[in-house]
Amino acid sequence: MKILVTGAAGFIGFHTARQLLERGDTVVGLDNFNDYYDVALKEGRADLLAGYGNFSMVRLDLADRAGMEALFAEEKFDKVVNLAAQAGVRYSIENPHSYIDSNIVGFVNILEGCRHNDVKHLVYASSSSVYGANTTMPFSIHQNVDHPLALYGATKKANELFAHTYSNLYGLPTTGLRFFTVYGPYGRPDMALFLFTKNIIEGKPIDVFNYGKHKRDFTYVDDIVEGVVRTMDHTAEPNAEWDAATPDPGTSNAPYRIYNIGNQQPVELMDYIGAIEKTLGKTAEKNLLPLQPGDVPDTWADTEDLATDVGYQPSTPIEVGVKNFVEWYLAFYK
Fold first, then answer.
1. Rounded to 5 degrees, what angle do the CA atoms 299, 272, 268 make?
2. Within a 10 A sphere around the Cβ of 262, how many other Cβ atoms?
3. Are 220 and 263 within 8 A, CB to CB?
């Protein structure tokens, strides 16, 4: 197949593109290489992908309507995996317009490209952030998600709504994946694991929000990618049992699906930090701070639907995943 992977120089996009390339698909990567974080890291990922003969990279912004229309018309993709977005809960408080450009305008350009060029399936990144003020654990796709706590989560909820509209109006199969705290090699520098590892190595204190009482469903990137690829191969179909009188938020009578994709085993933040300390053989100096605006105290993914439909089964323990990241970090940054 010919597959468009947006955000291919990003964390999850890079790993997804590499997995598809290694199984023999033709992949066109798209990224705008913005400077939200170290561009050298994005270039490093792109250089690795460039080593595959069945890969090409397009440097383009999702919000460039004319550029996106031309790309879709020329390439005629079979499927699209949209992993490009302006990421980060906290940054959305500082720079909301960036999220509208990438996550709203850019996503509509993706939908239009798929609609007009006979794309067989669109898989796109949503986020556990859509659960917002929900407190019922584990988080289920069958729960209402109308109370996001930050703009980032709101844009991801909007993506799900837009996708449903296109599935309903045009029969475009769409599947949204709500990622839960992804970590691993080539991760973003603004993510906790990266920040903690860097500061511990440099002997600097780490900021531990909510006094370390967070629980997160940390999910290793290889497990995430396995779920993304399996989902892409399993084209969304209408739910024949969907009832408008008691609507199920996770499915539809249109070819539309939502799935959680997580580890299904929440870990306390202090235990996560402990795994880093153990791998590095150093103890972190911790600044214990209150919960930050926009953050949720706990996340926990109910992945039963994804397991039933595509056989998703995460298999990487925290200790192994953290060790893999730290070894990558030490090698990459020498």
1. 40
2. 30
3. yes
Tell me: the pLDDT tens digits for 52-102? 999 999 999 999 999 999 999 999 999 999 999 887 777 788 889 989 999
Please state, in angstroms and rounded to a whole number, the distance separating the CA atoms of residues 59 and 36.
16
pLDDT of residue 250: 96
Those residues whose C-beta lies under 8 Å from the C-beta of residue 154, and which sit 6 or more positions away, are: 148
Residue ranges in the chain whose pLDDT is less than 50: none
Residue type, position 321, single letter: G
266 upstream amide cis, omega within 30 of 0: no
β-sheet bridge partners, residue 208: 288
Catalytic residue numbers?
152
According to DSSP, the β-strands at 215-216 and 267-268 are: antiparallel
**Which pLDDT does position 179 carry in this prediction?**
96
**11 and 186 Cβ atoms separated by less than 8 Å:** yes
Return the H-helix or E-strand segment holding 229. Answer: helix 221-233
The CA angle 209-176-310, to the nearest 5 degrees, is 105
Non-local (6+) Cβ contacts of 212 within 8 A are: 268, 269, 270, 273, 286, 288
What radius of gyration do the chain's Cα atoms show?
Answer: 19
Residues contacting residue 174 through CB under 8 Å, at least 6 positions apart? 121, 122, 123, 124, 163, 164, 166, 167, 236, 255, 256, 257
Please spell the DSSP secondary structure of 133-175, one letter per residue: T--SSSB-TTS-----SSHHHHHHHHHHHHHHHHHHHH---EE
> What is the 3 state secondary structure string of 17-68?
HHHHHHCCCEEEEEECCCCCCCHHHHHHHHHHHHCCCCEEEEECCCCCHHHH
Host H or E run for residue 124: strand 121-127
* Cα 102 from Cα 106, distance rounded (Å): 5
pLDDT of residue 299: 87
Bridge partners (DSSP) listed for residue 258: 176
**CA 167, CA 305: separation in Å to the nearest integer?**
20
Whole-model pTM? 0.95
